[in-house]
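Researcher: I've been going back and forth with a colleague about how ATP-dependent zinc metalloprotease FtsH might be arranged in three dimensions. Neither of us has a model we trust, so I'd like an independent prediction. The organism is candidate division WOR-3 bacterium 4484_18, in case that matters for your notes. Sequence below.
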Amino acid sequence: MVGDEGSPKKVSTAEVLLPFENKDVLVNELLAKGVEIRVKHRSSIWNSIWPILPFVLIVVFWVALFRMMQQGPQSAISFGKARAREVQSKDKVRRVTFDDVAGIDEAKEELREVIEFLRDPTKFKRLGARIPKGIILVGPPGTGKTLLAKAVAGEANVSFFSISGSDFVELFVGVGAARVRDLFARAKRNAPAIVFIDELDAVGRYRGAGIGGGHDEREQTLNALLVEMDGFDPNEGIIVIGATNRPDILDPALLRPGRFDRKIVVNLPDVNGREAILKVHTRNIPLGKDVDLKKLAQGTPGFSGADLANMVNEAALIAAKKGKGQVNMEDFEEARDKVIMGPERRSLAMSSKEKRMIAYHEAGHTLAALLLPEADPIHKVTIIPRGLALGTTQSLPTDDKHTFSREYILSKIGTLLAGRAAEKLVLNTVTTGAANDLEMATQLARKMVTEWGMSEKLGPVTFGKKEEHIFLGKEIGRPRDHSERIAEIIDDEIRNIIHEQEQRIEKLLREHLPVLHKIAEKLLEKETLTGEEIRKILEEYRRQN
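Model: Here is an independent structure prediction for ATP-dependent zinc metalloprotease FtsH. You can compare it with whatever you and your colleague have in mind.
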């Protein structure tokens, strides 16, 4: 480059990266100053890779997927392998026996012949006897179905394969059927063995009711299970045990003889069963001398084995929190109240007016339970908020009840309505605190009319079919099998039952108004009253009058 006077001018070269913003202004200024600009585009390998990257990633994904499916059970994602937990017969540490199972003696007796077959199959084969291929354990949750299956394997000293019904079904079609085949192949290699399928209804529901029209993944899994159960000889030493609390929705093909031959009901334990369960769960717990397991069993009607185990654990936690060296009866009482009524919420702030209203509400429940002839005895009443309730009245039957008379149900409805009746009688108002009571009372009255044939006007007839729709649930979509006129009569009968019991309870509370006031005053003073303390208040009133 030449300067103005003809002399050469020194030129410098610089390579810069222009900023994205205001680059046009900067370029124009440089050109005005006589700067020569040469544009150099930066090359990047991403410009070449980016168009084909999605296709590369898809290929890598499927290659990795197929490689993992071909690997053994130790693979991180082994789709075709059953996820059954296995307990070998030689594993002494994890083995469960009938000594660990209590409260379900009838079910244990039913399973003893299975144990005998697994121990000595020749005794049965000699006479041509065939042991059941499959056994279904039916019962409410927490009654010990899984524990019972483990105990059968432990007593027979055979391998035990445990899997949940939901573990068979995955996103990809055919995975469930592959897992079923793998499970039975493993069981045959380790025969004699027990295959336990928990929550059998997850895979064994009626076929043909799903969206896939009989070809969805769950139904293919069920088909594979049926084929496998047909494919092994009962004398091979493999027994399938299934557990469910919904036997009504199982496919009939699953329940036919030759598959699941036998159904064993595992019910909630009675008072003797609960005492035996408590003895099992307190074996390793230091108990105080005042602990009476029989009394605890009598005070826990309707508890399952899991509920009792939870109560024992809660009692041990309460005793440990207090720094005790052993668990006393008061700890068990507190744990039972926590399991039944929920934890205390003493931090909940309530006004004196609201607290008084709750005291009279609970006093109404309590007094009605004392005065009604068929009502369950009062165990405890409290105005301390527990769980979702602001106050609780706890009744415990003296014995386990299996059938209920009309008088007992009417007394139950009356007790439920008594809290609201006490509010009307003393406070001259009603509150939302009775919402749950009204719901339960209405439900009982409806069952009296539509299910139990206890309506004099309609007679011993049931109304409404119980049918479960696979997508709508148990109660939604319940078909009606009666006319509009009958529906009106049903509604009238329900209202009449509720109205009659409401009048009955209001009259009863009005006649014993001093006792109602006394119970409410004691609740405001002590917050919690036992059944014995409440009965003394009533006895004192009767002596004075």
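Researcher: What would you highlight for our discussion?
Model: I'd start with this: The beta strands are 85-87, 134-138, 159-164, 193-198, 238-244, 260-265, 378-382, 392-395, 528-530. After that, consider the following. The chain has four domains: 22-70, 85-208+215-265, 273-341, 352-467+480-544.
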